Amino acid sequence: MVVSILGCGWLGLPLAQFLKKEVSGIAVKGSTTSKSKLPLLKQAGITSYLIRLPDDLHDSDSASFWESDILILNIPPSAGTDPTPDSYPQLISDILKRAAEGGISKIIFTSSTSVYSSTGGLTTEEHAKPGTAARPSGEAVLKAENVIMESGLEYVILRLGGLYGYNRHPIKYLSGRKGLRDPLKPVNLIHQDDCIRVIAEVLGKEIKNEIFNVVSDGHPPRGEFYTSAARHFELPPPEFKDTPAIDYRVVSNKKLKKELNFSFTYPNPMDHTP
């Protein structure tokens, strides 16, 4: 099996390294927009490519990147240069056409739980509806999902919660801030290691044309979570103001755990793992 990872950034690079080291029978190709990352990929035995979107989609130097069995599509809505709401779905459409030209038959898309409304209680994969996402970027991601589902290629869409782990933790962005709202709002997070393991599980199973929420088991209130995290990392805690409790979103991982028989290494974000 040959796997190409489009976007070897904070998640894609360790994913490529994990697949190369831990999964037998897989050849891994990886793309980056940064020349400085090319040596890191090469050192891990990953065939590396410099691909800047959308300009390099048909660049001859990266033609062999698209000659794979599976494409892991790991680029955010900010990819490309056009900030209009439809630019991301259009970019995804262009990527899929290029992938099909190279012989790729299956897409694994790292989507986001931002496709859901910020309210609604327990939220399953069926709850994503056009016009209900909490942010415009979520609407763009949902449109991109639809482009993938209508492409004719096999797909697995992974709706990732907020990513954390190692050098990335959301407390670093909120430390010391005052007047934050919604201390009772549950967090919907996923550790980098668990996210990588989910993708590896999908690659190892005959799963196609499915959507999974990828979030950890624990959903502590954000006020409690960030205060505890600040204490753990010895940072100034954020200050929350009391706001009425509303019907907050809690993203369900039931389908993922059942169909992949998946157990999380880091089930509770309150454990403040590395």
Automatic annotation (TrEMBL):
One of its GO terms (molecular function) is aldehyde dehydrogenase (NAD+) activity. One of its GO terms (cellular component) is cytoplasm. InterPro entries: NAD(P)-bd_dom (IPR016040), NAD(P)-bd_dom_sf (IPR036291), NAD(P)-dependent_oxidoreduct (IPR051783). SUPFAM superfamilies: NAD(P)-binding Rossmann-fold domains. Coiled coil: none annotated. Residues 11-176 form the NAD(P)-binding domain. PANTHER family: NAD(P)-BINDING DOMAIN-CONTAINING PROTEIN-RELATED, PROTEIN YEEZ. This is NAD(P)-dependent oxidoreductase. It comes from Rhodohalobacter mucosus.
